[in-house]
Amino acid sequence: MDLAGEGIFVALAAVMAGLGQLWFWRLRLGEERTIWLGCAALVAAGTAVMALSILLVVIFPEGVFPWVQTLVLAILAIFFIFLLMFPIVLVVTLIATGIRLVRSEGRSLRNMLSLGLGCAMVAYVAIWPFVRSALSDVPVFGNVFDFIFGFAALLIALLGTVFAFYTVAGVVVQWPHRHRRYDAVVVLGAALMEDGTVTPLLANRVKRGIELWHLHPEAKLIMSGGQGADELQPESHAMRAFALAQGVPEDAVLVEDRSANTRENLAFTERLREQEELTSEGRLLVVSDDYHVFRALLITRTLGIAADGAGSKVRLYFALNALVREWVAYVDLKRAFFMRLSGTVLVLYTAFYLLTAFA
User: Fold this and answer.
1) 309-344, pLDDT tens digit by residue?
2) Distance (Å, whole) CA 150 – CA 99
3) What whole-number distance in Å separates Cα of residue 52 and Cα of residue 297?
4) Rg, C-alpha atoms of the chain
């Protein structure tokens, strides 16, 4: 390639990387409560890696600095190996952590989600093609079965892509905005122990909330959670007692004790902020388990609440199972969108199938 060609190639790579970064940071610094944040993060990372590799190759021609060529190849190899290995690592991790969760927590349906998803992914790759091939040869109904399997495969691929965007966005959205002001830090409640005290999981949430409150001492620390049918007291009261035992002053803690789910946690907390006149300047900082934060933030967007989020760490074997549960809840939250998406895919796939069948 001549010098002019190299210049055009570098310029195109730089433009792609620049657009990728612009898209990502526009969402990150603006309205980041969307799964498109995950897509933008992946695009920004991919285009940056490609642009850097191209730039190194052009600046350091082959034979001048051989180690640079090796470095570029290593960067590209690591990037693409990660992309190729990610599905395999995900399946193995889902199954391994699912088995551990079932052994430690019992065989409830909730605890078998990650194990079931991992086994379903294996079946999709190892068994699905043979079943589809066998049914496609059935007289009369073979084409119908082939159509159904093809549409299902396309829908699964789309849902898997959106799930990847959701997962990445859920990580990125928890990166701290260090220069933002918060007038309240709300810790979302969870089930209590039989004696009415906080569980280790909920204690970690409260500790994370206290940690963030120390970074924003001008804010109020709000404990949000009502009383379940099998609980001795409202979750927020137990959380408040735990926070006071950790040295938080009484006048820094508020309680919201009427909510029964995440949406009510946030809606009733917003009403409490309005009553306490805490909504004039800052935002709300939502604290929950790391796998739950993103969906909570999506709900704050539907409620019109300016909010950011931060998560407390959860053991991997529990977090992955809970992430699958959160994904199911997200699909339900966006049910209308996924219905429209499925309908659009069905129409397009039907048209494509008919065109190829009669071509």
Assistant:
1) 999 988 776 677 777 778 878 888 888 888 898 889
2) 31
3) 34
4) 25
Question: Same domain, yes or no, for 192 and 164?
Answer: no
Question: Are 198 and 307 in the same domain?
Answer: yes
- The closest alpha carbon to 263, from 230, 228, 303, belongs to 303
Confidence (pTM): 0.81
Extract long-range pairs of 40-45: CB within 8 Å, 24+ residues apart: 41/168, 41/169, 41/172, 42/164, 42/165, 42/168, 44/17, 44/20
> Are 252 and 333 found together in one domain?
no
Strands 220-224 and 253-256, how do they pair?
parallel
**What's the domain count of the chain?**
3
Alpha-carbon distance values, 264 to 175, 188, 296, 303 (Å): 25, 10, 11, 10
In a domain, 177, yes or no: no
Residue 291 belongs to domain spanning: 182-314
Residue 209, domain CATH = 3.40.50.620
The helix (H) or strand (E) run that includes residue 218 is none
* 348 occurs within a structural domain: yes
Q: Which residues of 136-149 are buried (b: 16+ CB within 10 A; e: fewer)?
A: beeeeeeeebbbeb
Cα separation, 4 vs 62, in Å, equals: 18
